[in-house]
Input
Amino acid sequence: MDIYRSLCDIAKEENVAVNEPMSRHTSFRTGGPADYFVTPDNAKALVGLLRFCDEEKISYHIHGNGSNVLFSDEGYRGAIISIGKNMSDIDIEGDEITAGSGISLSALSSAAAGKGLAGLEFASGIPGTLGGAVTMNAGAYGGEMKDVLVSVDVCSRDGHITTLSKEELELGYRTSIIQKKDYIVLSAKIKLNKGNEEDIRALMRELNNRRRDKQPLEYGSAGSTFKRPEGHFAGKLIEECGLKGYRVGDAMVSEKHAGFVVNVGEASSEDVLKVIRHVQDEVKKVHNISLETEVKLIGF
Ligand SMILES: Cc1cc2nc3c(=O)[nH]c(=O)nc-3n(C[C@H](O)[C@H](O)[C@H](O)COP(=O)(O)OP(=O)(O)OC[C@H]3O[C@@H](n4cnc5c(N)ncnc54)[C@H](O)[C@@H]3O)c2cc1C
Output
């Protein structure tokens, strides 16, 4: 069977790439080639891809903006199904917004601000898609997706589409039912509050300035590399181990924010992973605390 031809038939030839370097699609700027990289135009093509991969036993991974993943240098054997701007329709009615999972959080929060809707300011500087943010229950500066979500349309691995209420999403700290059940987010409905556009944009600017002051945004990274352990801050624990600036190749514990492992040049994913493992070992040794990665490791 010609897998490439079949993927083109389902998702259109211009949406299928072969041997695509994942370093082009991840904020770490690392990762080897994926056999197939497919960007479906709509939910129908997406469901078609899922069914095809399931029937033909082809491994696949759902990809958003790649801002919370570390792909192996070997790349990925199978299909990366990328949900991005091809699936980013947005519909605003009153104080509710329904949007495709591929929309970026910055575009979504800006559209909300434009309609004088408050509540998404926290998300404007998070460099992910809506689908990735629902999956991770992304949050910042006291806000999280859980605060604004009403319901989410998901597709199961066997191609069955259903709507999950906020309660059914089981949203917790950087977790959701989407991860546990391997659902695919198609779209989400959020509810915001009436506000004033200027105030909303001013708050967004303030939070983004705080981000620029505190975070090493000039380098590749996936944001906070580790989850916050109960009662502690990962960055502080790492700093107390004297690990700021700890480096393997071009992967390094950021000097600016020890919670970030950054790619300061041409790091490989292996370099990044070595830094991650060393940090975990040292924090365990010094503090007897196990740091869990927030970043998803794919293809290792
Ligand atoms: C500089 C920087 C700052 C950051 N700051 C924050 C922050 O303040 N708060 C925060 O929470 N995060 C932060 N992050 C991490 C990241 O941006 C978020 O986790 C974001 O929600 C990930 O979205 P994504 O589209 O990039 O997902 P990806 O990285 O592509 O994927 C992440 C996970 O979600 C899954 N996924 C993606 N899309 C879908 C979908 N449609 N359906 C089902 N599963 C899907 C993937 O399979 C993967 O398991 C930061 C990252 C960077 C680089």
Summary: Residues 27, 61-69, 83, 101, 126-129, 131-133, 135-136, 138-140, 178, 184-185, 215, 217, 221-223, 296 surround flavin-adenine dinucleotide (CB under 6 Å). The chain has a mean pLDDT of 97. The longest strand covers residues 184-191.
